[in-house]
Fold this sequence. Notes:
By secondary structure, the protein is mainly beta. The protein has one domain: Porin (Beta Barrel). The protein has one helix and ten strands; from the N terminus they run H-E-E-E-E-E-E-E-E-E-E. A hairpin with a 4-residue loop joins strand 8 and strand 9 (180-189). The longest helix has 17 residues, at 4-20.
Amino acid sequence: MFNIKFILFTYLFVVSTAFADGFESKLxxxxxxxxxxxxxxxxxxxxxxxxxxxxxxxxxxxxxxQYSKNWSLQFGVTDIENGQGDSLITGADQLLRVKxxxxxxxxxxxxxxxxxxxxxxxxxxxxxxxxxxxxLQQCNNSDLxxxxxxxxYRLINVSNDMKVSALLGVAVEYKLSESxxxxxxxxxxxxxxxxxxxxxxxxxxF
Length: 206
């Protein structure tokens, strides 16, 4: 089981050590494109195809606070849209439809190893916080052709939930100039049945 107390203790120890070495901290803002994949899961016996933007590019943004030469703390935001699933009600011309979306927040502690002055390899450990909204609706089966349920159909349940999962990742960063860097990254979290994301980030350091 993911031990949040151990992560917090380790992080505080690393931060206190980093500040002791007199490093001048740096703040960066980040924008990027990424693809993401969330494994299918079951909600009230309905199988939900939760990939959302899995085959397409999605946007992400974040803030990176580098507090030592090798360590930084990064916060990032993205989302999952348009996940849904259907289940035919036996003996009736109706179906249950699940619509799923989630706002995702990443908090990562990053360690950099420099290959040379311009290229660094990053190892990341952190948490993924998912703020979910799942709506369960009962519709006529004929609406399946239109890929939505009309608003006047019965809304059975709306669930708002928050899940916290462990996250691991790697990245390669290239220094374009004193202020600009770009990086390619891959992250994996044990969110629901497994979540992964990969993409490119462009960062500006103040």
